[in-house]
Amino acid sequence: MKGIMKTTAILTIITLVAGIFLGTVYEITKEPIANEQARAKQDACKAVFEGADSFESVSQGDDDLEKYLDENGYPSQSVNEVLEAKDAGGETLGYVFDVTTSEGYGGDIQFTMGVQSDGTLNGISVLSISETAGLGMKADTDAFKDQFKDKNVEKFAYTKTGETGDDKIDAISGATITTNAMTNGVNAGLCAFAYMEGGNQ
Hints:
two-stranded parallel ribbon; 4 helices; 201 residues; alpha+beta; 42% helix
Protein backbone atom coordinates (compact mmCIF):
# COMPACT_ATOMS: atom_id res chain seq x y z
CA MET A 1 0.00 0.00 0.00
CA LYS A 2 2.82 2.39 0.93
CA GLY A 3 4.53 1.54 -2.38
CA ILE A 4 1.41 2.49 -4.35
CA MET A 5 1.06 5.78 -2.46
CA LYS A 6 4.72 6.58 -3.03
CA THR A 7 4.46 5.85 -6.75
CA THR A 8 1.30 7.95 -6.99
CA ALA A 9 3.01 10.85 -5.22
CA ILE A 10 6.03 10.65 -7.53
CA LEU A 11 3.84 10.57 -10.64
CA THR A 12 1.82 13.52 -9.34
CA ILE A 13 4.99 15.55 -8.75
CA ILE A 14 6.34 14.66 -12.21
CA THR A 15 3.03 15.66 -13.81
CA LEU A 16 3.00 18.99 -11.96
CA VAL A 17 6.61 19.76 -12.88
CA ALA A 18 5.99 18.82 -16.51
CA GLY A 19 2.85 20.99 -16.59
CA ILE A 20 4.71 23.97 -15.15
CA PHE A 21 7.56 23.43 -17.62
CA LEU A 22 5.23 23.23 -20.64
CA GLY A 23 3.31 26.29 -19.46
CA THR A 24 6.55 28.24 -19.12
CA VAL A 25 7.73 27.16 -22.59
CA TYR A 26 4.36 28.17 -24.08
CA GLU A 27 4.53 31.63 -22.50
CA ILE A 28 8.11 32.12 -23.71
CA THR A 29 7.38 31.03 -27.30
CA LYS A 30 3.86 32.44 -27.67
CA GLU A 31 4.90 35.96 -28.66
CA PRO A 32 7.70 34.96 -31.08
CA ILE A 33 5.34 32.49 -32.80
CA ALA A 34 2.62 35.15 -33.09
CA ASN A 35 5.16 37.62 -34.49
CA GLU A 36 6.37 35.05 -37.05
CA GLN A 37 2.80 34.30 -38.11
CA ALA A 38 2.09 38.02 -38.51
CA ARG A 39 5.28 38.44 -40.57
CA ALA A 40 4.36 35.47 -42.79
CA LYS A 41 0.89 36.93 -43.38
CA GLN A 42 2.39 40.34 -44.21
CA ASP A 43 4.82 38.72 -46.67
CA ALA A 44 2.00 36.75 -48.31
CA CYS A 45 -0.03 39.93 -48.73
CA LYS A 46 2.94 41.91 -50.06
CA ALA A 47 3.60 39.17 -52.61
CA VAL A 48 0.26 39.90 -54.28
CA PHE A 49 -0.12 43.61 -53.47
CA GLU A 50 3.31 45.27 -53.56
CA GLY A 51 1.89 48.77 -53.76
CA ALA A 52 0.06 48.55 -50.44
CA ASP A 53 1.49 50.00 -47.24
CA SER A 54 -0.69 48.02 -44.82
CA PHE A 55 -3.32 45.29 -44.70
CA GLU A 56 -6.40 45.25 -42.48
CA SER A 57 -8.53 42.15 -41.95
CA VAL A 58 -12.16 42.87 -42.76
CA SER A 59 -13.60 39.36 -42.89
CA GLN A 60 -12.78 35.97 -41.42
CA GLY A 61 -15.04 32.93 -41.74
CA ASP A 62 -17.89 34.99 -43.19
CA ASP A 63 -20.88 32.61 -43.49
CA ASP A 64 -22.69 34.98 -45.86
CA LEU A 65 -19.66 35.07 -48.15
CA GLU A 66 -19.41 31.27 -48.14
CA LYS A 67 -23.11 31.08 -48.99
CA TYR A 68 -22.55 33.57 -51.82
CA LEU A 69 -19.71 31.41 -53.19
CA ASP A 70 -21.89 28.29 -53.01
CA GLU A 71 -24.74 30.04 -54.82
CA ASN A 72 -22.35 31.15 -57.57
CA GLY A 73 -20.94 27.70 -58.22
CA TYR A 74 -17.96 27.46 -55.84
CA PRO A 75 -18.94 24.93 -53.13
CA SER A 76 -15.43 23.43 -53.07
CA GLN A 77 -13.71 26.76 -52.44
CA SER A 78 -13.55 28.88 -49.32
CA VAL A 79 -12.23 32.33 -48.53
CA ASN A 80 -10.44 32.08 -45.20
CA GLU A 81 -9.81 35.80 -44.81
CA VAL A 82 -10.30 39.07 -46.66
CA LEU A 83 -7.89 41.95 -46.04
CA GLU A 84 -8.14 45.51 -47.28
CA ALA A 85 -4.93 46.71 -48.92
CA LYS A 86 -4.30 50.35 -47.97
CA ASP A 87 -1.82 52.99 -49.05
CA ALA A 88 0.23 55.15 -46.67
CA GLY A 89 -2.68 57.60 -46.39
CA GLY A 90 -5.14 54.88 -45.37
CA GLU A 91 -6.97 54.80 -48.70
CA THR A 92 -8.19 51.38 -49.82
CA LEU A 93 -6.41 50.12 -52.95
CA GLY A 94 -8.17 46.77 -53.15
CA TYR A 95 -8.27 43.44 -51.36
CA VAL A 96 -6.16 40.41 -50.57
CA PHE A 97 -8.07 37.12 -50.45
CA ASP A 98 -6.80 34.01 -48.66
CA VAL A 99 -8.39 31.18 -50.65
CA THR A 100 -8.51 27.41 -50.19
CA THR A 101 -9.71 25.05 -52.91
CA SER A 102 -10.35 21.41 -52.04
CA GLU A 103 -10.27 20.22 -55.66
CA GLY A 104 -6.52 19.61 -55.89
CA TYR A 105 -5.29 16.15 -56.92
CA GLY A 106 -3.22 15.96 -53.72
CA GLY A 107 -5.71 17.70 -51.44
CA ASP A 108 -6.31 21.29 -50.43
CA ILE A 109 -4.44 24.11 -52.16
CA GLN A 110 -4.20 27.43 -50.33
CA PHE A 111 -3.08 30.71 -51.87
CA THR A 112 -3.42 34.47 -51.61
CA MET A 113 -4.52 36.73 -54.44
CA GLY A 114 -4.55 40.51 -54.67
CA VAL A 115 -7.32 42.36 -56.52
CA GLN A 116 -7.24 46.10 -57.14
CA SER A 117 -10.35 48.21 -56.63
CA ASP A 118 -10.98 48.25 -60.39
CA GLY A 119 -10.99 44.44 -60.49
CA THR A 120 -7.47 43.93 -61.84
CA LEU A 121 -5.87 40.78 -60.44
CA ASN A 122 -2.31 41.59 -59.35
CA GLY A 123 -1.33 37.93 -59.06
CA ILE A 124 -1.41 34.88 -56.82
CA SER A 125 0.99 33.42 -54.26
CA VAL A 126 0.70 29.76 -53.24
CA LEU A 127 0.81 29.13 -49.49
CA SER A 128 0.23 25.37 -49.36
CA ILE A 129 0.19 22.74 -52.11
CA SER A 130 0.79 18.97 -52.25
CA GLU A 131 0.35 18.10 -55.91
CA THR A 132 2.35 15.57 -57.93
CA ALA A 133 6.01 16.50 -58.41
CA GLY A 134 6.80 17.50 -61.99
CA LEU A 135 3.12 17.78 -62.86
CA GLY A 136 0.64 19.49 -60.54
CA MET A 137 3.43 21.19 -58.60
CA LYS A 138 3.99 23.32 -61.71
CA ALA A 139 1.01 25.31 -60.43
CA ASP A 140 3.48 26.95 -58.06
CA THR A 141 5.76 28.18 -60.85
CA ASP A 142 5.84 31.70 -62.27
CA ALA A 143 5.13 30.29 -65.74
CA PHE A 144 1.70 29.17 -64.54
CA LYS A 145 0.87 31.83 -61.94
CA ASP A 146 1.81 34.76 -64.18
CA GLN A 147 -1.02 33.82 -66.54
CA PHE A 148 -3.39 35.36 -63.98
CA LYS A 149 -1.24 38.44 -63.38
CA ASP A 150 -2.46 41.94 -64.31
CA LYS A 151 -5.70 40.63 -65.80
CA ASN A 152 -9.09 42.25 -65.39
CA VAL A 153 -11.70 39.63 -66.18
CA GLU A 154 -14.87 38.41 -64.54
CA LYS A 155 -13.86 34.77 -64.75
CA PHE A 156 -11.00 32.59 -66.03
CA ALA A 157 -11.23 29.36 -68.03
CA TYR A 158 -8.43 26.94 -68.80
CA THR A 159 -7.68 25.63 -72.27
CA LYS A 160 -5.79 22.62 -73.62
CA THR A 161 -5.70 23.95 -77.19
CA GLY A 162 -3.60 27.09 -76.75
CA GLU A 163 -6.63 29.34 -77.17
CA THR A 164 -5.65 32.93 -76.37
CA GLY A 165 -7.40 35.70 -74.47
CA ASP A 166 -7.03 37.50 -71.13
CA ASP A 167 -9.46 35.05 -69.57
CA LYS A 168 -7.69 31.93 -70.91
CA ILE A 169 -5.23 29.86 -68.83
CA ASP A 170 -3.05 27.22 -70.46
CA ALA A 171 -3.63 23.91 -68.70
CA ILE A 172 -0.62 22.23 -67.10
CA SER A 173 0.23 19.20 -69.24
CA GLY A 174 -0.76 16.03 -67.41
CA ALA A 175 -2.31 17.97 -64.53
CA THR A 176 -5.80 19.01 -65.62
CA ILE A 177 -7.20 18.41 -62.13
CA THR A 178 -4.69 20.81 -60.58
CA THR A 179 -5.29 23.37 -63.33
CA ASN A 180 -9.03 23.14 -62.73
CA ALA A 181 -8.56 23.51 -58.96
CA MET A 182 -6.40 26.61 -59.33
CA THR A 183 -8.68 28.19 -61.93
CA ASN A 184 -11.78 27.60 -59.81
CA GLY A 185 -9.95 28.89 -56.74
CA VAL A 186 -9.01 32.13 -58.47
CA ASN A 187 -12.54 32.49 -59.85
CA ALA A 188 -13.87 32.03 -56.31
CA GLY A 189 -11.58 34.88 -55.22
CA LEU A 190 -12.95 37.08 -58.01
CA CYS A 191 -16.46 36.11 -56.89
CA ALA A 192 -15.52 37.16 -53.35
CA PHE A 193 -14.30 40.49 -54.77
CA ALA A 194 -17.71 41.01 -56.37
CA TYR A 195 -19.30 40.22 -53.00
CA MET A 196 -17.10 42.77 -51.22
CA GLU A 197 -17.93 45.37 -53.85
CA GLY A 198 -21.65 45.03 -53.25
CA GLY A 199 -22.64 41.69 -54.72
CA ASN A 200 -24.04 40.73 -51.33
CA GLN A 201 -26.65 43.47 -51.42
